[in-house]
UniProtKB/TrEMBL annotation:
Family designation: Belongs to the NAD-dependent DNA ligase family. LigA subfamily.
Superkingdom of origin organism: Bacteria
Record-level Gene Ontology MF annotations: DNA ligase (NAD+) activity
SUPFAM superfamilies per record: BRCT domain, DNA ligase/mRNA capping enzyme, catalytic domain, Nucleic acid-binding proteins, RuvA domain 2-like
Name assigned to this protein: DNA ligase
Amino acid sequence: MSNRTIPRVARARVQALREILQQANYQYYVLDDPDLPDVEYDRRLRELQDIEREYPELQTSDSPTQRVGAEPLASFAQVHHEVQMLSLENAFSDEELLEFDRRVSERLNSTVPIEYACEPKLDGIAISLLYRDGVLKRAATRGDGTTGEDITQNVRTVGSVPLRLRQDTGIAKYPRVLEVRGEIYMPKAGFAELNRKAATTGEKLFVNPRNAAAGSLRQLDSRITAQRPLELCAYGTGLVEGVSLPEEHMETLQLLGQWGFRLNREMRVVTGIRACIDYYNALGEKRDTLPYDIDGIVFKVNSISLQKRLGFVARAPRWAVAYKFPAEEEMTELLDVEFQVGRTGAVTPVARLRPVFVGGVTVSNATLHNRDEIQRLGVRIGDTVVIRRAGDVIPQVVSVVESKRPRNARPIVFPTHCPVCGSPVESAPGEAVARCSGGLICSAQRKQAIKHFASRKAMDIDGLGDKLVEQLVDEGLLHSVSGLYHLNLEQVAGLERMGQKSAQNLLNALEHSKETSLAKFLYALGIREVGEATARNLARHFGDLEVLMHADDEALQEVEDVGPVVAHFVAEFFQQPHALEEIEALRQAGVHWRVEERGGEEQPLSGQTWVLTGKLETLSRSEAKDYLQHLGAKVAGSVSAKTDTVVAGPGAGSKLNRARELDIPVMDEEALLEMLRQRGFDL
């Protein structure tokens, strides 16, 4: 940096220009009432660029000039969300929406109509924006809700994303730390213009605005993103430190609007579920006239205190629901049927269709589910069929237009032997699904099992993508999940598009994955009907794999949320010789996990609520949370009178102050580490 003196007039002019441009952005994007002509805006922006070019010391990250994009990235870094980004429960009918309201009222023990915030569900990409002292520091995708991708460089190019929050007279002070949740989308007009330009240059067209928005945000070169017509609408908050937000959701949104965020103008607050249905119907009628795509309405309990009382279930809040618009349907021809084999051996018929545009995408495949569904539909190859794409799920064949059936239409013959390995296809009594009996000798099942084993929520083997798994199996290098840990550098580096460095990175990731938790290991095994939550409950209840492996159906049903069907699948899995051999092979390869304390009440921190705040230097926040949960603690995101202990690292703010006000015990990270060591963790 130069030691020269910067003229006071230059400093003052830079400050004035930034305020003018920031206010112009607010008028344009938030109020939709621009008061500065485009030519004048461009003139002021160029003047600011000239001054910053002459005096680089004056350039800051929140300057309006810093939206043009930067040098391309090699890849996107991973981001751990401080507060989980939850998904939403869906409703597809008035009855399902009424049922949602009934559950809310019963849980609140309320006999009066509930007040709901109604928000159009924009068809875009959910993102998290993190501000510190009013300046944008990070933007991330939702990812799996816990971990997303850092797309800060790209999001900075979106004009409606404030780089610095507004703080005018009469506006409430923004929090020291504020995480804003929102949707980045592409308006219909911008999408049409983007495709028009692509057509004139011979480039590939985008299928719909959502795909265009997603593709634009995931550009490694943010200069490309800067050229795309993207917009942001805020719909909520995540992490907040330093200021208490209003007690109503809609009031919080209005406050975000004052701080510089665009809000959806169609949002309303209504009382009672019938008013929600009226709102849904009214917006549905004007849906096609809106300047952006929406695929439904999100209804949220407006009271924050009631939201807290309702809480969450799995990965979704109990206080919100997304009421999707009716599925879009089209007719097309069924050209053929192929049979795919999944991870559990399920043989699924897949319809190959004459491509048709439905639900915003071009569909050429659709599921027929199983043999019973084929018989129910009475469908034949050559038929004209109705395709439905509901709620962005896999397209499905819903009916046959028999009046259009050609004379040469032929029946669909379900295979008696696996189309991949030739093993007999069997159907268990009472099950509609037919399964290949080949197990891991079937390469299709083997591939899917390995993909599941390596996935982020399971063993989290970085770099082991689907295409690489396909190669490893097809080349005969991988015959089981345990075989992953016996791959060598020469084998991996010899594969297509793999070099020495990429191969070594994969081997390092495999070595790192050997240390896991019992819950993740159980989930990775791919036991039928055992998802993340069930795997975690099994691990907590039994504590040790050996105990679980010898549990019978009755013992298994003592586990929370485990019923007769799941108990049967778990017990059956651990009776299979090849499953036991594979588990032993994984252990011999070095896969290991911490021994968990058995049972809920026997765990040392059972019934306690802990809160983590500030920066942890030895452990990551997720690691500390994992350790505490293994000891039976509930790890909450906010401090209340029910909190038992707060772990505070450097930078702890409002949560630490709140703990002191409530006289709640506080420990630093070193004390936490010592407590964990005393409980048997090797740190």
